[in-house]
From TrEMBL:
It comes from Xylophilus rhododendri. Gene3D superfamilies: Metal-dependent hydrolases, TolB, C-terminal domain, Urease, subunit C, domain 1. Keywords: Hydrolase. Coiled coil: none annotated. This is Amidohydrolase family protein. The keyword Hydrolase applies.
Length: 1039
């Protein structure tokens, strides 16, 4: 079955597959299914946008992605669109009969129009390319808009009479936000931080405002002036958002001007949105106080949600099947499988269900692959201090280090003739390695988080999954097939079908078939292949290979056998046999059981905080039977037969919980990762979007006692829309794919679901229902309408959004009344992940420069920026951080459960959670409330017996010096940590990483040198600047 046929079949069977919208009644759209059980009145809007009708009697308003109209003098707003339309940027036609806007209703941004009375809703544009920021021409004949249809953002005009599109402007920058001059002769627009204008009939651009940081232009009524909005500062330290007129500030820097165009009333008066309000200002007037246009609008949210039903079983010792099978690899002859599980490497011989354990140490071992003769395994391992390539001799069991690079290496693959090895370095290079000497040659620069390479049969090309953006303005892209010609460095990107993305980019292909005739990969969660030429060029339509879910693909040397994972099971498919819906399960018997200590342990706490009380208790015994707290009593010295932990000079408190991590994305820290978290008192982590099998392997390894580390509550890859950015994102185009992910989540024991920024609202609603059926929470970057559908919370303080700006926080870090009211009424949680906190390290530089945890556990590349920050001197106030904490405090007062998360590995492991706590306290949150965000609140959101030290709870605790309720910095002064009744001193955690253990290249190591000229060409997204910027901007507000 072809992909198009499969999609058509799914559409016929599944009513949730989106169909093109015809003209229909907007009233019907507005009154479609009403979600929510609780009304919420909104009187302010975060990043709200407005447009004034030509007769100046009505204002059209974008508030929380809904189109409203209201009287121009203010008042109650009337809703025109429903919760699924996800609209923005309203603009009136010159006759006042229509309002055009951009909508994400069909999974891409397109232009829609509606009458002000709510009739005649019509979709104007369609297709795989985004169409944004519409502006009606003064003569009413065209709508200007921005689109990425040409490989970057440029300006186009849509002719309403014919539907034809013409190009208006296409500069070297990313062009957007068109604004017609009143006479229609010119179009102003933003272009990579500048404001330009061009003749409406096309011509050379003229600079109107050189910026930087400029956007949202608008012409004055007489056409002589242009206003815009300017952002001052950096993404992690925005100091002002200004209204600019004639190149000069027209607003006070205290104002928080929103990233949308102003509306001019005359030559010197305009309306604009700032500080959550609609404001009116006269330019040049003696008074600098703007007027205000009040409004109110009502939405509904869900405050009463089904209780969580799925709970991890930390008590039963019954054997459980291993499902966390990491990167299985089929041997060349097709009879053996090497894989990772429970922290070790294993070898399974087909027909013998019991695998053989190959390794027995605590070092990380990632991504085994076979030598062409089947005698050796190659894998990434940090046994020597950093992830390098190691070779395991299967005949003798001997292991030797092959490479000695100054950067972590992974994703290795042996060439078919055995003469070369390709791998990826953490700093973004594809490298070739000599299997004899370990010498490394750089081949080509990768882009962000590419997949494992596959060799062409002749060894002249590599294929891998890489991200191909539509523009530099927005990073979301398709996962495409990238081929690299090794001799020249030339690169080519291809997709099986236009606008259709490959699945996750790690080890799901494309695999080059050994006969050179096909690429094999996953698409929509299942196996596909495409015919190719000798150079890897696609030669025909893709072909489905089966109907079962597939991950982690591996081929035998003759290409007849394909190994893959399917919902926790190893499967084999005979490619030269009859086509079957499913592969054959490989008999496999590997079990694990929960590790629980025997006997009774008593922790004598000099001071004790249970996570509930507002004050400390003194001289307390915490009695622990096996892994749970049995009693909390006044200290009693005589307790025969118990094991004592002496914390009589310390404060004992609940173990901390980092509620936002991506630990498998950060696997360059390898075995240091769990040690760092424990060393900073973090006994549980919550994973948001990771490789499902790596996350499950981590959970099983820790719970079984094979790995010393924090408990992990994880999910799989995030559920995104048709465009993605990270390697760990499933591009979801249809509801049938969501149903497949539902089965995958159930089979792999997900603890939560995560949806990402391009999943459309109707599929978001479906995902919420899916999570409810699984009995687990769901979260995303979006607050509304997700909480109307029943989502229990959201992430970040204004994270990455498909709009380019957030509706939960402004660039200055403020969430206004709409955000506070919606989150409070829905009784939801929020994980803030506050960024820009590295400057706090300068207040106590010894905590970096002299702290043994930083100096021994952090590799050089991760430690260097921490040391620079520590030497930077005392911190200064960061306006956006103060605003973010003020928003959190307002939300807490409204009933929101705030939980603390770091967003590791975008920030430093362990330490960054403490910086979040310190920022909260510095800006007014009581220390006890800040600590609860990482203890009691977090445990409540996880839905497990965590976060407090009460009878019956799991014995996860930390012993610290000092009083953290008086000095939040004391929470980081960890001396001991306990997970499930098993305690570890700081010395225990540091012992595997002695001082002097290599974390960078040693003297005499073979340098990595470029072997061929780099041919990036038009693939600008391979530039190190873009990759670094795209990584750094994750989860920051960008509007």
């Amino acid at each position: 079955m072809s992909l198009t046929a499969a999609v058509a079949a799914a559409a016929a069977m599944d009513p949730w597959v989106l169909q093109p919208q015809a003209a229909t009644s907007a009233a019907a759209m507005a009154e479609q299914q009403e979600w929510g059980d609780t009304p919420v009145e909104l009187t302010q809007g975060t990043n709200l946008a407005i447009a004034l009708s030509p007769d100046r009697r009505q204002i059209a308003m974008d508030l929380q992605g809904i189109l409203w109209t209201m009287p121009a003098e203010g008042g109650s707003a009337r809703r025109l669109t429903g919760y699924l339309h996800d609209m923005a940027r309203p603009h009136w036609s010159p006759d006042g009969g229509r309002i055009v806007f951009q909508s994400y209703r069909d999974g891409n941004f397109h232009l829609w129009a509606i009458a002000p009375d709510g009739s005649g809703l019509t979709q104007l544009t369609r297709g795989e390319f985004d169409c944004r920021e519409p502006a009606w021409s003064p003569d009413g004949r065209e709508i200007a808009f921005a689109s990425d249809r040409g490989g970057h953002y440029a300006l186009y005009a849509y002719a309403l009479a014919t539907g034809q599109v013409r190009r208006i402007a296409d500069t070297e920058g990313e062009d957007g936000e068109p604004a017609w001059s009143p006479d229609g002769s010119r179009v102003a627009f933003s272009s990579s931080g500048r404001i330009l204008s061009v003749p409406a009939d096309v011509g050379a651009p003229r600079v109107e405002f050189a910026g930087p940081g400029a956007s949202a232009p608008a012409w004055s009524a007489d056409g002589r002036r242009i206003s815009c909005r300017q952002v001052i500062g950096t993404p992690r330290d925005v100091t002002a958002c200004r209204l600019i007129v004639d190149g000069q500030p027209a607003s006070d820097d205290a104002e928080d001007v929103f990233p949308v165009p102003a509306v001019w009333l005359s030559a010197d008066e305009l309306l604009y949105t700032a500080d959550g309000e609609i404001r009116r200002r006269r330019i040049g007037a003696a008074s600098t106080v703007p007027g205000r246009i009040p409004f109110s609008a009502t939405v509904r949210v869900t405050a009463h949600r089904p209780p969580l039903r799925r709970r991890r079983d930390f008590d039963s010792r019954a054997p459980r099947p291993v499902k966390g099978i990491a990167f299985p690899s089929l041997s060349p002859e097709g009879g053996r499988v090497a894989f990772g599980a429970l922290g070790q490497l294993w070898l399974l011989t087909l027909g013998q269900p019991e695998p053989r354990q190959l390794t027995h140490d605590r070092a990380a071992k990632i991504g085994p692959c076979w030598s062409p003769d089947g005698q050796r395994l190659l894998y990434a391992c940090d046994r020597s201090g950093m992830l390098q390539l190691w070779v395991h001799e299967l005949r003798t069991g001997d292991a030797r280090q092959l490479t000695d690079s100054d950067r972590p290496l992974k994703q290795a693959a042996w060439s078919p003739d055995g003469s070369r090895i390709v791998c990826a370095s953490e700093d973004g290079w594809l490298c070739l390695v000599d299997p004899a000497s370990g010498a490394i040659r750089k081949v080509a620069r990768q882009t962000a988080w590419s997949g494992r390479s596959s060799w062409s049969p002749d060894g002249e090309y590599l294929s891998l999954a890489g991200v191909r953006p539509y523009s530099a303005r927005y990073r979301e892209a398709v996962n495409a097939i990238l081929t690299v010609h090794l001799a020249s460095g030339r690169m080519r990107y291809q997709v099986p079908l236009p606008g259709v993305s490959l699945d996750v980019r790690n080890v799901n292909g494309p695999l080059w078939s050994p006969d050179g005739k096909h690429f094999i990969y996953t698409l929509g969660g299942t196996l596909w292949r495409s015919p190719i030429g000798a150079d890897g060029s696609l030669q025909g339509a893709p072909e489905a290979l089966g109907e079962d879910t597939a991950d982690a693909l591996s081929l035998s040397a003759d290409g007849r056998r394909l190994l893959y994972l399917s919902n926790g099971r190893l499967r084999l498919r005979e490619l030269d046999g009859p086509a079957l819906p499913q592969g054959q399960d490989i008999p496999f018997h590997l079990r694990w059981s929960v590790a629980r200590p025997a006997g009774t342990t008593v922790v004598h706490a000099g001071r004790f905080w249970d996570g509930v009380a507002d004050t400390l208790r003194e001289d307390v015994d915490i009695v622990i039977r096996s892994h749970r707290i049995a009693a909390i009593e006044p200290h009693r010295a005589h307790r025969p037969g118990v094991r004592w932990v002496d914390a009589s000079s310390q404060t004992v408190m609940p173990g901390l919980i980092d509620m936002h991590t991506h630990r498998e994305m950060g696997n360059q820290l390898a075995s240091r990762d769990p040690a760092i978290f424990l060393a900073y008192g973090i006994t549980s982590t919550r994973g948001l979007a990771d490789n499902a099998y790596l996350a499950l392997e981590n959970k099983e390894s820790v719970d079984a006692g094979w790995r010393v580390g924090p408990r992990h509550f994880g999910t799989g890859e995030a559920l995104d829309g048709s465009r993605v950015f990270y390697d760990g994102m499933h591009p979801i185009r249809h509801a049938s794919q969501l149903l497949r992910e539902f089965e995958r989540a159930r089979a792999l024991d997900y603890d939560l679901l995560k949806t990402y920024v391009r999943l459309p609202a109707d599929l978001q609603e479906r995902a919420v229902r899916m999570a409810e059926r699984l009995g687990i929470p769901i979260t995303s970057h979006y607050l509304f309408p997700a909480v109307a559908f029943g989502a229990p919370g959201h992430e970040h303080m204004g994270g990455t959004s498909r709009f380019g700006y957030s509706r939960t926080g402004s660039m200055l870090g403020v969430g206004y009344q709409d955000v506070v009211a919606i989150a409070g009424a829905s009784r939801s949680f929020r994980t803030p992940t506050i960024f820009g906190l590295e400057g706090l390290l300068g207040d106590h530089p010894e905590e970096v420069l002299e702290d043994v945890r930083v100096q021994r556990l952090f590799p050089d590349a991760e430690r260097a920026p921490l040391e620079r920050a520590a030497r930077g001197g005392p911190s200064r106030p960061v306006r956006m951080v103060a605003n973010q904490v003020a928003t959190l405090r307002a939300q807490q007062a409204a009933g929101v459960t705030v939980v603390c998360g770091s967003d590791y590995p975008i920030v430093a492991a362990g330490l960054s959670l403490h910086l979040n706590l310190r920022a909260m306290v510095r800006h007014g949150m009581p220390a006890v409330d800040a600590l609860r965000t990482a203890t009691a609140n977090a445990g409540r959101v996880l839905g497990h017996d965590l976060g407090t030290l009460l009878v019956g709870q799991l014995a996860d605790l930390v012993c610290v010096e000092g009083d953290p309720l008086a000095d939040i910095g004391c929470a980081a002064k960890v001396r001991r940590v306990m997970v499930g009744g098993v305690d570890h001193s700081l010395e225990d955690l540091l012992a595997p990483f002695p001082a002097g253990l290599k974390t960078a290249a040693v003297a005499g190591a073979v340098p990595a040198v470029a072997a061929v000229p780099l041919a990036v060409g038009e693939a600008w997204w391979h530039s190190p600047h873009w990759v670094a910027e795209a990584r750094a901007l994750c989860c920051l507000a960008t509007g």
